Amino acid sequence: MPSPQNPNPCAVEQNHPQFLELQQYIDSLHINPEDPRRKDTLIMTLHRAQRIFGYLPEVVQVYIASRYSIPHADVSGVISFYNFFTTTPKGKIQVNVCLGTACYVNGADKVLREFEQVLGIKSGQVTPDGKFSIESLRCVGACGLAPVVTINQKVYGKVKPGDVREILEKFFIDEQTDVKEAVNG
Ligand code: FES
User: Fold this and answer.
1) Does the residue 6 lie in any domain?
2) Which residues of 114-125 are buried (b: 16+ CB within 10 A; e: fewer)?
3) What's the predicted TM-score (pTM) here?
4) What is the pLDDT of residue 13?
5) Which of 96, 109, 137, 148 to mutate to test the pocket of ligand 1 (most atoms within 8 A of CB)?
């Protein structure tokens, strides 16, 4: 039982619709705390949680650990092992700048700095309106196009700092079009 001085950290969040969705998903797995194989479904659950929340904040990790009757360190260990899991929130438009060797020697660090300057955030941050986030990545396997930037599913090759504003403008325009289409039905 949590004491009043040390309340369950999930108590408030568990009433949130996103937590309820995760709770229902985990309920459907019928996890038996005595079963040594119960961690077999942990990665699936983390994927589902990341789809629901957009990332895996600590409170979600703690909740999942408690549902699996395993230490929080086991959950955070899995998250840090796989690079498709993230513990930081992402923007709707995710800018990823490759800082692998081929990209770096072709000036990817300057490209990253330009994105940071134009969007007014640092790598690992999200703009206050939640639209854009910036991350740096290791080699994305397109070294012939270095320096490489990906924005959501789209790949940009041989990017120069001078291209950054033009690339982002398209996304600003697409955003406005989305809003207009939503308004006009
Ligand atoms: S180093 Fe950037 S794509 Fe390989």
Assistant:
1) no
2) bbbebbebebeb
3) 0.64
4) 62
5) 148
